[in-house]
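Form 7-S
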Amino acid sequence: MSAPRYAIGIDLGTTHSALSRIALDGDAPRSERVDIDQLVTSAELERQPLLASFLYLPPEAERPLPLPWDGERPFAVGGYARARAPETPGRVVASAKSWLCHPTADRRSGLLPLEATEGVDRISPVEASWRYLEHLAEAYDARFAGEGPRLAECPVVLTVPASFDASARELTVEAALAAGIENLTLLEEPQAALYAWLEQAGDGFRSQLQPGDVVLVVDVGGGTSDFSAIAVTGEGGELGLERIAVGDHILLGGDNMDLALAHFVKQRLAAEGTELDAWQMASLTHGARVAKERLFGDPALAAAPIVIPRRGAKLVGGAIRTELGKDDLRAVILDGFFPEVGPEARPAVRARTALTRFGLPYASDAAITRHLAAFLGRQAGALGGGGKLLHPTCVLFNGGVMKSELLRERIRATLERWLEADGAPPARVLHGADLDLAVARGAACFGRVREGHGIRIRGGTAQAHYVGVEGAAPAVPGIEPPLTLVCVAPFGMQEGSSVAIDAELAVVVGERVSFRFFGSSVRRHDEAGASFERYASDEVAELPAIEVELPAEGRAEGEVVPVRLCATVTDIGTLLVEAVPLAPRKPDERWKVELSVREP
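Output:
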């Protein structure tokens, strides 16, 4: 009898990661949670539903931190790493996923922990992600040893935010490959959440979704706020699903709330005469996160303690003790991040100062409700709706922050007011998904859908992509040469497909050159090769420039070579652009211009 086959779903989260699997054989199997063995103290192993996305880099005296499958492990991933964060913030890596999409950082270099203690060797966001995925794979293999194929031998679906750009997606793939996961597909997290809801609803989903419905997925996690719209269509009497809109990448989530709570507590301590240094502030931020999660998780709890160690003092007796109350949570998070605003509200844009500390490029406006209003307003125009807003008929919540009933109700009530003002009926909430595990379960379900079982959400690329082509013009002081944008990958381009760009362009070979790429989530009708010069800044955004040196291949350095471009969305969901010379020097000669390329 052959071993059972499984599809694996992995939610690589900012704060927690999760693992699920589903049998690929049988009529109607259900996805199952895979609990993860991890250290919860330096010597105690525990199997838990979630793996905390934290990595602890201990001093030499604390090494090794042995696991059943690695007795010499020099670091810890998971619960123990998270527990060490308030006490030793300079030795704990957190929020690696947020750093993967940092547009100007070299994400392969040692950046984390940002406030590293002396003697700590920083690691890259890619390596941190690799270590989380490595732990998940090793824990899976150890648990199911002898019962079936190893995780790396199964089809694996790894989720990413819908708003992740091509570079962040490619770096996520790089981390997975380093962990030995090669049979890989990427899936957008909001789609995974809907797959999980479909599985939970069973055949009953047909009574809850009808052709013409639009499902708004509001996904607020530890690092990002992600909005997607998925339309329900009718195809020959059968329901279909199509992802029709994706919001911008908004670095705004639970991490920002933890920082806001930490600053709130810091100001209160300062008023009482206690000042905190940067190291203690990092500890306080981790402590605020723990207190926040306890308060949101237990409605009966009125306050949660926070302990901040002093420099050079033992935790017990020498620590600063304070607390976070339920009213504090409401004032800081509900009113600060989810204010009651009108449908015309838009995020404030704050002018940046010339000098700033290196860190994550957080959204300048913390009001998630304003970002949601902007998404619905922009998509109404892009999709040709009759009102001022896109009119969702259903709402599906996802992400750890949305576990709070208080926050879900604020968004639901706000959205209801907006729709009423725009002449639309209220949207109904789709209930039933486990917000901690929905993405991992949905990812596993998608692995089965790929084999032809169940409804597949049609999506393709979440943005249209363009390359900037500089025009030939005489030098004029203060005047930039004209720039034409040429579409290389239309919105919704499907995985595994390629397009050739008819426009004849030219590249410089043998020396360092820069490619300028642009993206748009609202220009849905531009076909491959379409070009334009004028565009609004709120519909087209410039991506980080890509610097490469294309090999001369026997040509003179600096020679200008006529080419045509070819774009491919790979089977795993990344974007590849290639320059094909019109007069190749050898068969199949072409230069790869990958959006993932990022030099220091």
